[in-house]
């Protein structure tokens, strides 16, 4: 996690409620405000799902990092690392593999088809030029790529295969995740969750937060944060128990990655944990499942990476193959009953 506005905080109220006790997910929802787009999202998802064929596979992709505000009228926040590359690139791949995609992303993080033209990568202006007669146009060397991305984007948006919903804070994310999960649950094995967003492990409950901007007159700032309840548990057990669930595990210490990924799998009992290291995530990931004690390694070479190959292509193909098998197994087991 990094400090959102690079400020040095030097004063803070320390609430007695901000201890390190772990609350359960329901209590979290009772004590935090839903996002303003929750109702809109519900209506749009309902419409989106109504437009899908009965056998359509649907994936919820979460992408980007959640923020944790330090004040109710938020000036400062703690942010979680994620540019949204994994999520936005995977969305493009899943669409090309025939999925309908609900893309739940952090506002201003990378988005499918738009990701190459974002300020996070190159600024939009670097793709444009002025003509001699005073018009602005796309530079000829970019025209083909932009035309292709635009056509794909329009095809999937207009064809009701891509729906984008945004979040900023941890609370926004969790309310939206629960909403989408409950709406996808009736699809059973056909629905997949691909949880690539980087979600904060710690937060300050809104009733413990300073209402207004924390003032700097009282010296150093000490922050005490509560642990975020583990939402994978209710997601797997209650919200969407028959769906295919892929979570991601991010570490910086290589010794911890494997054990933590296995632990998550044992604890929540879902289908796949994709483990990645912060500094090698663009060319190497490991898939942990309950079917095998050894992880399945997916990697691309440095040369492929330099040539513009995305590891998400291999990753989504492998996940999609396993999901297909899951759907088929489910189908067979319901027919035998
Ligand atoms: C990931 O591990 C993603 O692959 C990345 C992608 C965030 C590394 P980028 O968006 O990065 O391409 O820049 N996401 C999950 C991170 C996370 O918060 N996992 C939690 C954990 O590790 C479990 S939900 O405990």
UniProtKB/TrEMBL annotation:
Name one molecular function that GO assigns to this entry.
ligase activity
SUPFAM superfamilies registered for this protein in UniProt: CoaB-like (SSF102645)
Superkingdom assignment:
Eukaryota
The record's listing under PANTHER family reads:
CORNICHON-RELATED
Organism taxonomic ancestry = Eukaryota, Fungi, Fungi incertae sedis, Zoopagomycota, Kickxellomycotina
What keywords were assigned to this record? Answer: Ligase
**Stated family:** Belongs to the PPC synthetase family.
Reported EC number(s) for this entry are 6.3.2.51
UniProt name for this protein: Phosphopantothenate--cysteine ligase cab2
Q: Does the keyword Ligase apply?
A: yes
Protein source organism? Coemansia interrupta
Gene Ontology BP term (one): coenzyme A biosynthetic process
Which of the seven top EC classes does this enzyme belong to?
Answer: ligase
> DNA/pantothenate metabolism flavoprotein C-terminal domain location, by residue?
190-281
Signal sequence interval, chain numbering: none
């Amino acid at each position: 996690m990094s400090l959102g506005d690079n400020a040095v905080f030097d004063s803070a109220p320390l609430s007695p409620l901000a201890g390190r006790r772990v609350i359960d997910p329901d209590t979290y929802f009772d004590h935090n405000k839903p996002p303003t787009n929750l109702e809109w999202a519900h209506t749009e998802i309902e419409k989106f799902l109504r437009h899908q064929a009965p056998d359509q596979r649907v994936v919820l992709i979460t992408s980007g990092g959640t923020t944790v505000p330090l004040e109710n009228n938020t000036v400062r926040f703690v942010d979680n690392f994620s540019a949204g590359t994994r999520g936005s690139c995977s969305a493009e791949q899943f669409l090309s593999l025939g999925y309908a995609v609900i893309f739940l992303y952090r506002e201003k993080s990378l988005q499918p088809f738009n990701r190459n033209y974002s300020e996070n990568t190159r600024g939009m202006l670097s793709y444009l030029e002025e003509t001699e007669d005073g018009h602005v146009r796309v530079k000829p060397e970019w025209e083909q790529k932009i035309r292709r991305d635009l056509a794909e984007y329009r095809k999937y948006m207009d064809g009701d295969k891509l729906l984008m919903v945004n979040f900023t804070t941890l609370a926004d994310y969790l309310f939206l995740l629960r909403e989408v999960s409950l709406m996808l649950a009736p699809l059973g094995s056909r629905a997949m969750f691909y949880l690539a967003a980087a979600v904060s492990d710690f937060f300050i409950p809104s009733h413990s937060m300073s209402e207004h901007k924390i003032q700097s007159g009282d010296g150093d700032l000490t922050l005490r944060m509560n642990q975020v309840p583990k939402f994978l548990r209710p997601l797997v057990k209650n919200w969407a128990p028959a769906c295919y669930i892929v979570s991601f595990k991010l570490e910086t210490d290589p010794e911890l990655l494997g054990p933590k990924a296995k632990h998550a799998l044992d604890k929540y009992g879902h289908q796949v944990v994709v483990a990645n290291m912060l500094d090698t995530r663009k060319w190497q990931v490991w898939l942990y499942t309950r079917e095998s004690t050894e992880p399945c390694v997916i990697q691309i070479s440095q040369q492929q990476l330099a040539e513009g190959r995305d590891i998400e292509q291999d990753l989504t193909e492998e996940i999609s193959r396993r999901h297909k098998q899951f759907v088929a197994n489910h189908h067979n087991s319901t027919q035998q009953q």
